[in-house]
Amino acid sequence: MSQDVSENRTDASTEPTVTLPVTPVEPPQGFVPANHPPANHGPQRPLRTASGRNNRIPVPVVPVSPAPAGAEARRAENGPPHAVRGVADPARNNAGERHWSPAPNRSAAARPATRPFVRARGRHAAMSRRQRWETRYVRTLVLADLAAGTGAGAAGFGLRFGDEVTLYNRAYMLLSALLPVVLLAVLAVSRAYERRYLFVGSDEYQRVIRGGVGLIAGVALLSYALDLDLARSYVLAALPSAVVGVLVLRFALRKRLHLARARGEALRRVIVVGHELSVIGITRQLRRERYHGLEVVGACLPPDADGVGVRGGPLDLPVYGTFEDVASAVEQADADTVVVLSCPELDGAMVRRLAWRLERDEVDLVVASTLIDVAGARTTIRPFDGLPMLHVEHPRLHGGSRLVKDLVDRVGALVLLMLFAPVLLGVALCVRLTSRGPVLFRQVRVGRDGQMFRIFKFRSMYVDAEARLTELRHLNEHDGVLFKIRDDPRITPVGQWLRRFSLDELPQLLNVLSGRMSLVGPRPPLPTEVAAYADDVRRRLAVKPGMTGLWQVSGRSDLSWEEAVRLDLRYVENWSLSLDLVILLRTMTAVVRSSGAY
């Protein structure tokens, strides 16, 4: 039955507006307005009644239906709910007290983090991840250096005194125990643990060598000044072996790091800032040389760039905006490094403001120089009337450093000839017995300053290889002036094995001993190749050719001609003894890997 109430309805617009007085309610003790949003500040709303409803709004009366039959019996049988089982405790219902408590709320942000890393205060999340693996790497370096010092001390003591401990050699036993600590201190003073010198490059090895030479010189001066009767055999056995052990262990740890980076681990997430062509070039290079540890995850382009070449194609690189959006791009891409390429839009003031923005999260800022393949050792910043000027020194192609290199080459070649004498004899017998022709292959090559000389190699081809070159010229797989075929039919079965492990190049030690070649340097070219060189490529002839070099340890024949030339020019411009040592160490792993050897 319905009731019509339309006749009792009145027009609300004709009634006067009544403003009800609002009485502000005092907050409880300890209430702080800052704990609440600004919209809640001001007059407080009236409190609700005990029933939880506003008493100004009439509540409709709803008839309560009678309980079904047997409900009381079932309620008595089931018992009280678990929430109220037992004696009720009014103190447990303290939601209001928790709400008005001055203590901070226990929110989700205060709970233990579920991420696999702990973010340091004031650091970006990606920076925290990088700090974790870098710290672990430095800790491993310290342990490796201690192990090298301990082994060198034990080896020096054993070689000089044997296993017997006497009253005379107890002092040397104490020196052997202190050698790891002293070695660690010397390396720390030489800044061999600073992270900017680690992970890639030859600066780390240079500092180890300088620290080792300083340690040997310091011990010699101290023993002379204090008139200490030190056993020379112990000093000459312990200290040099400690330096060599540190170098070998650090090289092994770096190779392990490079292998991890090849698997996508221990990488820096990089945002590249610059023009589209420059971004494409640096991204391709960093993806090809992953041992540098820089993974490009995004780019920021000029406002007028469409970014089609960056977003599409094999590059497939996200574009996060323009030069003004670098800081937000770091947050979106979770990056920890920003690489700024050379472009006229990014002047000094803009780069300085960018550095201020990235400083809060300690995101690294790297400004790429326009000086291609010029090492930092040749560049120094010198102020000129308040303006910093970048001074570039000439490469060390002459002078005392070259005399030291020639001495090291000839002594090293003599030592290697004596060590590999059995191998040389065995390879010579294999070549002689398996194919007709001479054991050694002699060929004219171009050396330093365009001088001709004859190179020696073990013969790895049949005797008619030069005559068959013309008919195989169309099968060339290299993109430059070199002639390379992966499955060359002119190579003998023994020659394939020799080329795989670079044993055919061992007779070049005779060329090094005679002064025509060096242990490390550019590849010795043929006269026909030099005739096709461009003017820039002729720079390779400024130094002696080498048995190994950056080209050989970076992929050999698998590299393009432009990449091979770039690596050779980089060596010419940035030569150093420590770089030669790094290349020699990398040569051993390249020979075992045998990639690009054909």
UniProtKB/TrEMBL annotation:
Keyword GTP-binding on entry: no
GO cellular component: membrane
Compositional bias annotation for Low complexity: 14-23, 102-115
Region feature Disordered, mapped onto this chain: 1-115
Alphabetical UniProt keywords: Membrane, Transferase, Transmembrane, Transmembrane helix
Domain of life: Bacteria
Keyword DNA repair included in the entry's annotation: no
Membrane topology: Multi-pass membrane protein
Chain ranges passing through the membrane: 137-159, 171-188, 208-226, 232-253, 411-434
Skewed-composition ranges (Basic and acidic residues): 1-12
Domain Bacterial sugar transferase: 405-592
Record's subcellular location: Membrane
Pfam families on file: Bac_transf, CoA_binding_3
Classification via NCBIfam families: EPS_sugtrans
Homology family: Belongs to the bacterial sugar transferase family.
UniProt protein name: UDP-phosphate galactose phosphotransferase
